[in-house]
Design brief:
This protein is of the alpha/beta class. It has a single domain, classed as Rossmann fold. It has eight helices and five strands, in the order H-E-H-E-H-E-H-E-H-E-H-H-H. Helix 4 links the parallel strand 3 and strand 4. The longest helix is centred in the C-terminal third of the chain and has 15 residues. It is globular, with a radius of gyration of 16 Å.
Length: about 160
Amino acid sequence: MPENEKAVAWLLNEIFFDSDVPFVVAGKNPSPELKQFIARFDNAKLVSDPSAEKMRSLIADAQCNVLPSFNNTGIKLKIINALFHGRHCIVNNAAVRGSGVESVCHIAKNAQQFREAVRKFSVLPLYEEDVIARKKILDDLFDENKNCLRLIQQIW
């Protein structure tokens, strides 16, 4: 998707360009241009067309899932996946505004804050109290039974 490719380019050019932190990009059908672009960076790796199991493994194994958005169109599935299955989730305001998950993400407002967050959280464990707070929010927001009841109440 063009927005995802724009995010990858921004992250590599602005955040990871001089970093020794490994940067893994995973997604379906990456363009030839994106493949060539990523290949220019020694710390970047592309995982093309990962299976659902492989994607979940990549999310879980990443110390930080860095997921900026350039438009405010609601919470992205990749952020929900990162919160359910990953460790630190670094985003910007546009990625989570009004979603209810703001308090369990690390929000960066600009490139400098993203660089600082990556540097900090790439070596910091995800503490048990953070996992508990995240689980509480996610269980409330994405509980299928609660959401079905909410829908039923709105319909009737």
